[in-house]
Design goal:
two-stranded antiparallel sheet, about 5% strand, 5 helices, about 150 residues, mainly alpha
């Protein structure tokens, strides 16, 4: 095999290995590191398995600065209500939305406030105080809770 052929083979295996990992190394302060998640799309009609046979594959062209797996969880469980004009009191469409002060209130000494993602973290857990999310007695599937909890922990 020629050196060029070997380089192409190594590059292909490297891409396949990355696809099989299928996870984004999220950093709460910067969303996806090095834009690994944004701009990634799945191949073959949105399959849930990657080239390596089982990893998460991003189905979105633009994840709005969020890790793809986090965006997927929000899109499937939260954004129906938490969008501009939706019944949720704040949007959850972009990374910036998750970093805003809850309800847009800056904290004061008398009234401390939290970031939106802190409220999200509390409200999606099984047994969360009312209003547990998502509403209407439709608990979020554990796979999405696990994805979001992993992101919150970064």
């Amino acid at each position: 095999m020629t050196p060029r052929g070997l380089a192409v083979l190594v590059a292909c295996f490297g891409l396949a290995a990355l696809a099989s990992l299928g996870s984004c190394d999220a950093d709460l302060e910067s969303g996806c590191r090095d834009d690994i998640c944004s701009g990634t799309t799945s191949v073959g009609g949105g399959s849930a398995t990657g080239a390596g046979g089982g990893g998460f594959v991003c189905e979105y062209e633009d994840t709005k600065g969020l890790p793809c797996e986090v965006y997927d969880a929000l899109e499937k469980n939260c954004q129906t209500c938490h969008r501009v004009g939706g019944q949720g009191p704040f949007p959850l469409l972009t990374y910036e939305d998750t970093q805003d002060w809850l309800y847009g209130r800056e904290p004061t000494e008398q009234l401390p406030n939290v970031r939106t993602w802190v409220r999200m973290q509390r409200q999606i857990q099984p047994g969360a105080p009312i209003p547990a999310m998502p509403l209407n007695a439709n608990p979020m599937p554990q796979v999405f809770i696990d994805r979001l909890n992993a992101w919150f922990a970064t």
